[in-house]
Amino acid sequence: MNQTAKGLDRRRLLAALGGGAALGAGAAAGIGLTARPAAAAAAKPDPAITEVQDWSRFLGEGVAAHPYGKPSKYEAHVVKRDVEWLTAGRESSVNFTPLHELDGIITPNGLCFERHHGGIAEVDPAKHRLMINGLVDRQLVFTMDDIKRMPRTNRIYFLECAANSGMEWRGAQLNGCQFTHGMIHNVMYTGVPLRLLLEEAGLKTNAKWIMVEGGDAAGMNRSIPIEKALDDCLIAFKMNGEALRAEQGYPLRIVVPGWEGNMWVKWLRRIEVGDQPWHAREETSKYTDLLADGRSRRFTFVMDAKSVVTNPSPQAPLKFKGPNVLTGMAWSGRGTITRVDVTLDGGRNWRTARLDGPVLPRSVARFYVDFDWQGEELMIQSRAMDDTGYVQPTKAELRAVRGLNSIYHNNGIQTWLVRANGETENVEIS
Amino acid sequence: MSRFRKVFAAALVIAATAGAAEAGRLGLGREALPEEVAAWDIDIRPDGQGLPPGKGSVKEGEALFLEKCAACHGEFGEGAARWPVLAGGFGSLKSAAPEKTIGSFWPYASTSFDYIRRAMPFGQAQTLSNDEVYALIAFLLSMNDVVKDDFVLSRDNFTAVKLPNEDAFYLDDRETAEKHFWRKDPCMTACKDKVEITGRARVIDVTPDDKDKSMKVE
Question: Where is the Moybdenum cofactor oxidoreductase dimerisation domain (chain A) (predicted)?
Answer without folding.
Answer: 300-414
